[in-house]
Amino acid sequence: MKKIPFVLFHRRLYTIEEDQRLLNLICKHKAYNYVNGIKFWRLVEGSKKFEDRTCVSLKNHFLRIIIPKVISKKKHGYELSSEDRIKLKKGFDNKTNKYFNVCPDIKL
User: Fold this and answer.
1) How many domains does the chain have?
2) Which residues contact 20 (CB under 8 A, 6 or more apart)?
């Protein structure tokens, strides 16, 4: 029986600087309501501002890691105004809304 080599895939972890750039990009373009869809993340990937990051990776990291930190009352280390924090939370909560917000073509 032939042994199949075990290959480890090394994924580069997100840095706090990348997280902050992502938050700044969303706030700058007022894209709070588009974070649940894929079109916004394809635009971010296409902007080449996040090297070696796919749209799926960016979206998953934002929704699974960044948003829970921003929504929680704990210190998260991001520079974010309370107004932007509230808007991000509302945009994230809009995924249950029956009217899905389609991202317009934004020049990033």
Assistant:
1) 1
2) 78, 79
